[in-house]
């Protein structure tokens, strides 16, 4: 395969925010990542570190590799035919692609919320309890307590507290998405990956999710992919701009949005292409 | 050209009409003969008496023994076919590499096209002796062996319809389950199978309906002793095998004994009709969840 040192590493490090050498500060650390789908190179030598309890936004035009890159952090690409990669991803300084690591354990730590709300065709309660049940937890009081806390955290509880046994599919799209967030939170992850979590929702539901994301930052490290520049600007601390599989610019959101270093970033943010 | 098109259209319509008329004709004859039968035998006796001896001197016309025989063999069959069929469907849909699936699916379908008389002899000559080697009390004719073999026969009904149901569950649910840290096995049995449950139930009902209508296997291997029992070890008779027995015998046309096959036949027809309607109802009522 391709050599990992081919592209100019120095440029990339310059675009990283604040902390370069002290990698122990990173919650997540991607190192020299290449991703291939068969022969097609979808990610081209990206390195980037993500601080604990921060919100990081991935932006960039369609097909630039945001989802591909995001799914590396909980190894959801592993199922895709033809997927292969180079490089390492560290979570709390441990390589998550270590052959000895159990993928199921990783995904309990790194939760994911998808673009389209995807609740199970079960009751609201059972959706949130799912992650606990598959871990073999039987204590019903414990599960109930966790379900309610998670629903409250996801700011959904007050709307559905009398209907926990109702089918999750009867909820509105925005409620379903908050349910999916509650479902992810119930297993107490420390990282939450969100792939365009509001793109299928109306503006009011989107607003609620944004507020929620902001609230969750207290306890979680959040990485969010979005096509919505205003959203990236509102919710995130740091922003990474990807273009055709490469990391063009990465740093403080305010700076990227007001005074980006690269013309390409400037053009994308101001809507001149994309 | 015009006229040719017209003629073709008429011929096609006539073909369709023939099938409809045949079905109506069958139902009509069943109904007429059964009606005449119930003029001579009380419908209460028919559904409550536990003796079925229309061919003996001491005549009794209780359908319950035939119903119990039919239900028992169908129950044994579905007990075999449902778990195996679901496991195969899950394997094909969740585990098997595409290449394996391509080979396995047509192989499975073969099970459904083996002539049933072959299954009947298989049950009588091979399965029964094997079962007898570890179930000492098992009669040479019994419900267990043809039930099991019938179960094998209907596996493809369950597996292929269940597989259709599983593959119509959206991938996003599988992703959600994996994303929560589920194993493949948990994803298959805690998310995918429940999400496909309506389709799986439909497949089971259609398979049961097929088992109830099955004739040769039970006629060959179950014996022909109408007996009101749910004991799988003893000889029994099903509705279908009774009909075969009488049709091939020398009962005079128009006699009560002759008409019993129509009474039995219409009972069978009504049961499978109800089952098929239940499955249709489930399909339309519950199967639009994912679009
Ligand atoms: N399963 C796959 N097999 C082959 N190629 C893929 C696969 N998934 C994605 N790709 C390709 O990889 C590239 C990056 O895709 P990705 O989905 O990561 O982009 P994205 O930035 O998330 O786009 P969008 O904004 O449209 O969601 C695209 O060119 C895409 O065609
Ligand atoms: Mg994407």
Task: Report on the architecture of this protein.
Chain A has one domain (23-269): Rossmann fold (3-Layer(aba) Sandwich), CATH 3.40.50.300. Chain A contains eleven helices and ten strands. In chain A, β4 and β5 form a beta hairpin. Chain A has 274 residues and is of the alpha/beta class. The two termini of chain A are 30 Å apart. In chain A, α4 crosses α5 (140-153) and α5 crosses α7 (173-185). Helix content of chain B is 76%, strand content 0%. Chain B folds into two domains: 2-39; 47-286, MetI-like fold, CATH 1.10.3720. Chain B has helices at 2-40, 43-48, 64-95, 98-113, 116-134, 144-167, 171-179, 184-195, 197-213, 216-221, 239-248, 256-286. The longest helix of chain B is centred in the first third of the chain and has 39 residues, at 2-40. Chain B has 291 residues and is mainly α. The A-B interface holds A 74, 76, 79, 103-108, 111-112, 114, 116, 118-122, 130-131, 133-135, 169, 180, 183-184, 187 and B 170, 172-173, 175-183, 186, 190-191, 194-195, 289. The structure holds adenosine-5'-triphosphate and magnesium ion. Adenosine-5'-triphosphate (ATP) is lined by residues 37, 40, 42, 60, 62-68, 80, 82 of chain A.
Strand content range of chain B: under 5%
Major sheet attributes of chain A: 6 strands, mixed
Query: Pair with the most extensive interface?
Result: A-B, 28 and 18 residues
What is the first-to-last residue Cα distance of chain A?
30 Å
Label the overall shape of chain B.
globular
Structural class of chain B: mainly alpha
Percent helix among the residues of chain B? over 70%
Give the termini separation of chain B. Answer: 43 Å
> What is the correct CATH architecture of the largest domain in chain B?
Orthogonal Bundle
Extended strand count of chain B: 0
Spatial extent as radius of gyration of chain A? 19 Å
The largest sheet of chain B is: none
CATH fold-type name of the largest domain in chain B: MetI-like fold
Q: Spans of chain B of 5+ residues with little confidence (pLDDT < 50)?
A: none
The number of distinct helices of chain A, counting runs of at least 4 residues, comes to 11
Q: Specify the structural class of chain A.
A: alpha/beta
Count of the domains of chain A: 1
CATH superfamily of the largest domain in chain B, called what?
Answer: MetI-like
What is the count of DSSP helices of chain B, taking H or I runs of 4+ residues? 12
**CATH-defined architecture of chain A:** 3-Layer(aba) Sandwich
């Amino acid at each position: 395969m391709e050599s990992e040192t081919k592209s100019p590493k120095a440029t990339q490090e310059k675009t990283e925010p604040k902390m370069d050498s002290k990698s122990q500060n990173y919650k997540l650390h991607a190192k020299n990542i290449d991703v291939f789908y068969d022969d097609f190179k979808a990610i081209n030598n990206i390195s980037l570190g993500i601080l604990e309890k921060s919100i990081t936004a991935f932006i960039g035009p369609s097909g630039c590799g945001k989802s591909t890159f995001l799914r590396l952090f909980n190894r959801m690409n592993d199922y895709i035919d033809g997927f292969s990669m180079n490089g390492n991803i560290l979570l709390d300084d441990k390589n998550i692609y270590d052959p000895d690591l159990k993928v199921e354990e990783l995904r309990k730590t790194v939760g994911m919320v998808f673009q389209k709300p995807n609740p199970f065709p079960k009751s609201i309660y059972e959706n949130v309890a799912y992650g606990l049940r598959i871990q073999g937890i039987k204590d019903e009081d414990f599960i109930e307590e966790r379900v309610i806390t998670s629903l409250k955290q996801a700011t959904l509880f007050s709307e559905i507290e009398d209907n926990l046994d109702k089918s999750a599919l009867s909820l509105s799209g925005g409620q379903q998405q908050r349910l999916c967030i509650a479902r992810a939170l119930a297993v107490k992850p420390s990282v939450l990956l969100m792939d365009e979590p509001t793109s299928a929702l109306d503006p009011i539901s989107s607003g609620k999710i944004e507020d929620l994301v902001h609230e969750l930052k207290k306890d979680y490290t959040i990485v969010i992919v979005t096509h919505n520049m205003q959203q990236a600007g509102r919710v995130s601390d740091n922003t990474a701009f990807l273009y055709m599989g490469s990391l063009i610019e990465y740093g403080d959101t305010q700076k990227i949005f007001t005074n980006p270093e690269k013309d390409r970033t400037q053009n994308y943010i101001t809507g001149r292409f994309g | 050209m015009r006229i040719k098109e017209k003629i073709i259209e008429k011929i096609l319509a006539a073909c369709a009409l023939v099938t409809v008329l045949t079905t109506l004709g069958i139902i009509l004859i069943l109904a007429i003969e059964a009606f005449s039968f119930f003029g001579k035998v009380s419908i209460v006796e028919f559904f409550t008496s536990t003796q079925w001896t229309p061919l003996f001197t001491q005549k009794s016309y209780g359908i319950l023994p035939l119903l119990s025989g039919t239900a028992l063999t169908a129950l044994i069959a579905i007990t075999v076919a449902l778990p195996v069929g679901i496991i195969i469907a899950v394997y094909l849909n969740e585990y098997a590499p595409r290449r394996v699936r391509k080979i396995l699916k047509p192989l499975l379908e073969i099970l459904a096209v083996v002539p049933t008389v072959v299954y009947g002899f298989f049950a009588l000559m091979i399965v029964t002796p094997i079962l007898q080697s570890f179930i000492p009390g098992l009669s040479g004719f019994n419900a267990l062996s043809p039930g099991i073999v019938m179960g094998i026969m209907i596996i493809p009904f369950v597996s292929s319809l269940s597989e259709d149901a599983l593959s119509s569950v959206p991938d996003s649910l599988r992703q959600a389950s994996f994303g929560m840290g589920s194993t493949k096995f948990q994803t298959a049995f805690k998310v995918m199978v429940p999400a496909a449950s309506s389709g799986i139930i439909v497949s089971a009902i259609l398979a049961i309906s097929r088992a109830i209508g099955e004739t040769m296997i039970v006629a060959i291997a179950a014996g022909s002793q109408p007996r009101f029992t749910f004991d799988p070890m003893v000889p029994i008779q099903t509705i279908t095998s009774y009909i075969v027995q009488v049709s091939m015998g020398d009962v005079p046309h128009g006699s009560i004994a002759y008409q019993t096959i129509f009474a039995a036949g219409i009972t069978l027809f009504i049961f499978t009709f109800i089952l098929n309607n239940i499955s249709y109802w489930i399909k339309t009522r519950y199967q639009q969840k994912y679009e």
